[in-house]
């Protein structure tokens, strides 16, 4: 069985009540004056009930609107709070990465400097060894020439 819409039910009940009351008034054996008086009373009662229904609907609509506004404000503040936390975490991570990059850069610079010093030191030692070997070779050549 399909669900019945409350709004449709209320409208149907109201229309059915009006039609039923009108039929009862028109079919009842009364004089014209009494019939007009009864119709006027029923019309007044229907108008009051319609106004009451409209007022209730307006109040409920305002209540729902207020509720929706409160909930949307809560959701907005929660989203804002969480996005602020995410932004802060991203900033922290970015700062940490920057610091680590600087440390790596400093380490690379230190290693390059140490390597340059080692190369310079090794060049000096190699140069001294080459000079010594050249001097030894020259002295041997001189000895060989003298011995001839």
TrEMBL record:
Q: Which Gene3D superfamilies match?
A: Apolipoprotein
InterPro entries tied to this protein? Desiccation-related_membrane (IPR052928), YtxH (IPR024623)
Q: What species is this protein from?
A: Alkalihalobacillus alcalophilus ATCC 27647 = CGMCC 1.3604
- State one Pfam family annotation: YtxH
Give the top-rank taxon of the lineage listed in the UniProt record for this protein.
Bacteria
Keyword vocabulary terms for this entry: Coiled coil
Protein name as annotated? General stress protein
Q: Does the keyword Phosphoprotein apply?
A: no
Positions the record marks as coiled coil are 105-147
